[in-house]
Fold this sequence. Notes:
By secondary structure, this protein is α/β, with parallel strands linked by helices. The protein has helices at about 5-10, 10-25, 30-35, 40-60, 75-80, 80-95, 195-205, 215-225, 275-285, 360-365, 370-375, 415-420, 440-445; strands spanning about 145, 185-190, 205-210, 235-240, 250-255, 260, 265, 290, 305-310, 315-325, 330-335, 340, 355-360, 380-385, 385-390, 400-410, 425-430, 450-460, 465-475. The chain starts with a helix and ends with a strand.
Amino acid sequence: MDLDAFDELLTPRGQRALAEAVELVGTDPVAAATRLRRTYDAALTSAALTQAGLRERARAKFGEDARRMYFTPHGLEQSTRTEVAEHRARRLTQAHPDTPPHEPAALPHGPGTHPHRPDVPPHGPAAPPHGPASPPHGPAAPSHEPGTPPHGPAAPSHGPGTPPHGPDAPPPPGLGTADISPHRLRVVDACCGIGGDFLALARAGCTVAAVDTDPLTVAVARANAETLGLGDRVTVSVGDAAEVQPEEYDVLFADPARRTGRGRTFDPMAYSPPWPVVLDLISRASRACVKVAPGIPYEFIPAGAEAEWVSYKGEVKEAALWTGQERAGRRATLLPGGHTLTATGAEAPVGPAGRYVYEPDGAAIRAHLVGEVSEIVNGRLLDPMIAYITGDEPIDTPWAARYEIEDILPFSGKKLRAALRERQVGNVTIKKRGSAVDIERLRTDLRLNGEKSATIILTRILDKPSVIICDTSPPA
C-alpha cells in the first residue's frame, strides 16, 4: 500500500471497499480479491484487503479501536499495546497534577468532513457502538516453550483539487505556547509511527506534536487521530526526529524504529534514529520517556535514568527509559495488574533446593530484581547465575510462578524418560534456563504415553546440568 492508495482508501468509495474487505476477512484470499475486483481497481482492492487484514491482527493490541484505525505492517508490529501506552500516559500525567483527567475529545470536524478530503466522513466505515537478547549481567533470562517541523497545530486541511501530500506541500506552522491550553501537558512524539502512544497521551489530556519521517506513516497516524476523535489534541507532521526541539515541550517521547533491511535489530546504534541522536534529544529535554527493546544492554542506559521493564500477562513486552524525574535506577511493572517493583539492593543467597521452585517474571529478571523477588518469597537461588529461586513455603506473589518439586535429577534423557514413565506422565511442559538442550528434540526423544501432566525445568544447579520434575498431576 502506497500513499496514493491510502488516500484513495479515505474517500467514500475507498471506505465502501474497506467495509466490504472487512466482511471478507478469513475467507479465501483469491476469492476475496476476485469479488472486490468486480467493483474496484487493483490498487484499491489490494489496499482495502491489506487494511482489513491489519485491522484484524491489530485487535490483540488495540481492542475495539482497531476496527476504526489504520495501519502499516511495520507500524503495527512496532506499535505499543494499548494497556502499555496507557500505563506510560498515566505515569506522565500523574507527575503533572495540573493535567486534566481524560475527557471525551470534541470532534474537530463536522459531519461530512475529513482532515484530508472534504467529502469523507471523519470516522470511515460504520463501526459498532462498542465495539531477545539476554541482559549482560546477572541470572540468565528464561527461555520458554509455548505453552518536517516536529511541532505545530494540525497541518492545514486541503480543499478539493489540492493534493494533501507531496514534496511541494508547505510545512505545518510551528507550535507556539499561545496555541496550547496552559493546563495541558505538551508532549513531542519524535518517532510516532502509526500513533499508538500519542493516542493514549491525548486521551490522558496531553497535547501532542508527533513526527515521523515516512509520509505514508504520517498519513496513517493522522487518520488515526481523526477517526478516534483526537484531532484537536494531536498534530502529525513529516519530519526528522533529529530536528525536533525537545526544549519547547514539557515531555519528549520517542520510540526509535528497531528494524533494518535485514529485520529486527537489538543494537541501539542501528535504531532509527540511531542512539547518539536519541541521547542528544534526551539531554535537551526537561523530561523524556524513550521506548526501547527489553534486551537493551545496560551500558546504553543514560546516567540518572530510570529503566522500566514492562510485562503484560507474563510476557515482557518492552522497556522504557525515563529521565527528568527524581528517581533513577531499575523498575519492573506487571500489567494489567499494575504491580511495580524497584531495586532495593537485595541479594539472593544460594542454597539447597526446598519444596518449591519459583520462576520470577521476565520483567523482574530483565531489571535485575531477582534478589528482590527472592526476598518476597523468602527464598534462595539454586545456582548463583541462574534465576530460579527455591523456597520452603508456598508464597503467592504476582512476581513469580510457583511449582512444587517432586524430584531433581542430573540431566540424562534416558533417566528423565524413565522417571516420567514411572509417574505415568504423557503431557509435559518444558522450561529451561541455562541449558543448551533442544526442547523439541527432547520432547520427541521422550516418547511419553500416560494420563498425567508434569512441568520439567532444565537448568544448571551449581554448574551441573539438572532437571527438576514438578507438579505431576492429572490433566485439567
